[in-house]
Design a protein that fits this description.
The protein has about 325 residues and is α+β, with helices and mostly antiparallel strands. It is built from 13 helices and 14 strands. The radius of gyration is 23 Å and the shape is elongated.
């Protein structure tokens, strides 16, 4: 049934292409055909983004996010996302599985690269492929020798200017082998779950900051994160950039502290963060209520267990943490 549908799709596209060939220039044909392919496969947002941003003379591979996933990013620029999700050259899934862990591929967006990783498996054909941590769940949806389309489970956020610099991604450039499959994939799934929840509950900046550190966070076994809602971040003098830069100071690596755990911590308890040599400290031990709130670095924990799954707990703060000298406590 799947083969028959693929053949039917190809016939429809070929007929559409040929019927327009006499009345339109080659470039317009290519652009129209690419948009038709994406729309027919169900990627209507990408199809409407303007395939003209891709090169008409270059074989192309598109890692296509679903329309539903793009709804979670109302501020995303879809035409730019299309460029960032598209790479020159043909990359069928069997070839992607053979690439070295952490291979970077340049996209149609200038100075922006995607990172390819795979799960470890004894048989290459069994490897799962990830693009910037997002799994290819529908490989080789379309391949006509000029265009390949893979379906992603979610979408890749707008790429950083440093995305092509291997040295800036230490967790990808140093290991010779990917982390253990079961733990690595479980943490990756839990991170995606946490980021989705945060995006839809007013913590989209925190979700974006987690995406920036996704590779580094994937290497952890567990984590506790202290989050600032979007409104508070922009009211704070440091702004969103300061919070993103200080995200590691708001994360307790390999430690899962629920609301009950935090409330039980005595005053003066030091909490090591992802920033070496920079610990948080419990400055006020209470029941977490309005009368006796729990404070860390003198900042009130105003919402407990914003996110809580098997590996990640997120608590809400009133303001970002500042450095505190714990020796006087």
């Amino acid at each position: 049934m799947a083969n028959a549908a693929a053949v039917l799709l190809s016939l429809i596209l070929v007929i559409s292409f040929l019927s327009a060939a006499e009345s339109t220039p080659p470039y317009a044909n290519y652009t129209s055909l690419t948009a038709t392919i994406l729309s027919t496969l169900g990627f209507r947002d990408l199809a409407g983004a303007g395939a003209a941003s891709l090169s008409a003379a270059t074989p192309t591979t598109i890692f296509a996010p679903t329309d539903s996933s793009l709804l979670t990013c109302p501020t995303c620029c879809i035409p730019l996302l299309l460029q960032e999700h598209s790479v020159p050259g043909l990359y069928p899934v069997h070839f992607l599985r053979t690439l070295a862990f952490g291979t970077k591929i340049g996209t149609f967006a200038a100075n922006r690269c995607l990172t390819v990783t795979t799960s470890s498996a004894a048989v290459t054909a069994s490897k799962e492929v990830f693009i910037n941590g997002v799994e290819i769940t529908k490989p080789d949806l379309y391949n006509n020798g000029l265009l390949i389309v893979h379906g992603l489970q979610g979408f890749v956020s707008h790429l950083s200017p440093l995305s092509c610099t291997v040295e800036s991604m230490t967790s990808l450039s140093l290991p010779q082998q990917p982390p253990p499959t079961a733990a690595f994939l479980a943490m990756r799934f839990m991170l995606k779950d946490a980021m989705t929840t945060l995006r839809t509950t007013g913590y989209s900046i925190v979700a974006l900051a987690m995406r920036v550190k996704f590779s580094e966070l994937s290497d952890l076994k567990t984590l506790t994160l202290f989050a600032i809602d979007d409104e508070s971040i922009f009211l704070d003098g440091g702004g969103s950039h300061a919070y993103v830069a200080e995200l590691g100071f708001h994360i307790l690596p390999n430690r899962l502290l629920t609301s009950a755990d935090l409330i039980s911590l005595p005053r003066g308890t030091a909490l090591p963060t992802m920033e070496p040599g920079r610990d948080l400290v419990v400055t006020s031990s209470g029941d977490g209520g309005p009368v006796a709130p729990t404070r860390i670095n003198y900042v009130k924990v105003k919402r407990f267990d914003l996110v809580r799954n098997q590996r990640i707990v997120v608590h809400g703060l009133s303001t970002p943490f500042r450095h505190v000298d714990c020796h006087g406590l």
